[in-house]
Each structure stands twice: as C-alpha cells, then as structure tokens.
What we know:
One of its GO terms (biological process) is tRNA wobble uridine modification. The chain has a single domain (17-233), classed as Vaccinia Virus protein VP39 (Rossmann fold), CATH 3.40.50. It is an alpha/beta fold. Strands 1, 2, 3, 4, 5, 6, 7 and 8 form an 8-stranded mixed sheet that branches. Helix content is 44%, strand content 23%. Mean pLDDT is 89; it is low at 2-6 and 9-16. Helix 5 (86-99) links the parallel strand 2 and strand 3.
Amino acid sequence: MDKVFTKPITKQFEFDEDVAVVFDDMLERSIPFYKEVIALTCKTICHHVKEGAHIVDLGCSTANTLLALHKKSDKSYHLLGIDNAEAMLHLARQKVHAYGANIDLEHADITHVALTCKDVIIANYMLQFIRPLQRAAFVAKLYDALNPNGLFIFSEKIVFEDKVLNKEMIDLYYDFKREQGYSDFEIAQKREALENVLIPYTEDENKAMLRNAGFETIEVIFKWGNFATFIAKKKV
Length: 236
C-alpha cells in the first residue's frame, strides 16, 4: 500500500524503487476513475485499429494499459511500452510474464527515442512531466511518428483558467484523495514533491498544442474535475 508520503520528503518526486513498488496502488487512489479511463482507452483503440496495428505506450510505468489492451482485445497487436524508470519496468516485466502477454518493454528516455509508423500512441499522465519548452516539439514529433488515421490518446491533469474555479476543483480533488485514505499530511507532502515537476496545461492549451502539431480531430473523451483524457487523430 502507498505510504510514500507518510514521512517528511527529502527530494522532489521521482519514479524510483520506493514509488514503483506501490505505484499501482498510488494510481488507483490518486487518479479519479483510473481503471475506467484505461478501459475507455482500450475500447477506443480496439474499435479504431485493425489486426497487426503498432501501438506504443510512452511512460508505460508498470504496463497497466498495455496489459488491459492485451486482455480486452481479440486482435493481435504489436505492443511496445517505453519508460525511463528501470524500477517501473522491472515490475512491468514481471506482470507481462505472469500474464503471458506478448508485450515488448524498452528502457529509454521517451523524449529521445526514435518512433516511426505507429497506429496508436498512448501517453497517460506523462506530458505534464515534460518541461513546457520541450512539450510542443515532442508532441509534433509524435504526430510525425503516426501513420495516417493514427490516434494519439493521452490523459492529463489540467488547470482551469478561472482561478476561483480552479481552486474549487483542486479542493474537490483533495477531498477525493481523503476518501481514498490519504491524510492531509500525505496530500501536502506529495503536492510539495511535485511542485515544479508536474506542470499541467489548461484544456485549451493542450488542444492548441495538438493543433499546432498538425492534428485536426481533437476531442476530450473523459473528464472529471481537473483530469481529462484527450484523443487526437492524424489526418488521412
């Protein structure tokens, strides 16, 4: 169970071994409708792509999304997960082996890895950790890596332009975390650890970034408070 922030923090947030061993629990208790978002992502992909599609999950962590796709689809896909945290991939490999899934896992910096000819790119709660000065160029790179009619699906924490409403959404989110068993101390500790590490955009800023990269079809397919899941389609 996630107890990472029950003690005073000594560093900024990192996806290290301490986080990796409790990460799945942390995700389910920290992200509203986490499992439902994965299920929606997988169903969307299964409806959109054909047998043999090439699908990559950037920042795959412990491979939850790829494993869900493996279990839910009756099609055979080329599944690849990339993450820069070896501790996460160690757990991912164990889970992939346990399920007998045909999923390739690669230890690499997602901002530097070469990507080509992908039918779907997934990036859940990952772009927010890329520095704003690099983020737009990275999304443009993803657009170029997609095949025509390819999908880019990603989930993000977002901020609201209205400062009062934004504060209210943050308070509602903290209420959600309390309902999951987190203490006010743990909530404050994680907020401090993520400061200047996780930098979210507004919904409109995310959409503008996608348009500037070349995407024409851009929709929000799920939203809860200050969390949103986007889908962008490359033109045929």
